[in-house]
Amino acid sequence: MKSFNEIVADNLVYLRKSKKMTQIELAEQLNYSDKSISKWEHGETLPDIEVLSKLANLYNVSLDFIVTNTSHEELLEDHKKTQNKQNQIIISLLCVSFVWFLAAVIFVYTNLILQANYWMVYIWALPISCAVLIYFNKLWGKKKFLFFLMSFMLWALLLCFYLQFLKYNIWLLFLIATPIQIAIILWSQLKI
Predict the structure, then answer these.
(1) What class has domain 4-69?
(2) Which of 30, 67, 89, 190 has its CA at 20 to 30 Å from residue 133's CA atom?
(3) C-alpha to C-alpha distance for 25 and 21, rounded to whole angstroms
(4) If residue 146 lies in a helix (H) or strand (E), which one and from where to where?
């Protein structure tokens, strides 16, 4: 069975070689001597936790990757899953930011060209953003987030209608939403 120093040393060698770096190049990036890198990679000494954290950031892996005695392929697979999840979140947020970009374009257009102050476009961007997030949550997300997104979309949509038709005083719309919210809560409790 490998010692902790050997595990860390093997992982450091693997990561450095996977980035096609020499010990000298790594030493320059970390402001350490290549002898220190060599000692770490031979298991003679261990870098302190701050240096391990810098190495994890440099190699774009978790600290667990460096200190765990698991096959490199298995660790890389876990790392890819984490990166995929991050990419999914970024894609979702990019799409939501596009909704807000369109809202800004419409607002500027109506202000400059039509000489109208249509600020409601930003209010309508709320339920549209929720719809986008619901779509991506259906693809990649978890059911518990879907409940919050649907609830927020319901109330944002009602707020949009209320503000859009403010002069008609249609506040009773919010009473209609109550049984719908209860249905969303009950639906969220279903076990599939």
Answers:
(1) mainly alpha
(2) 190
(3) 6
(4) helix 143-164
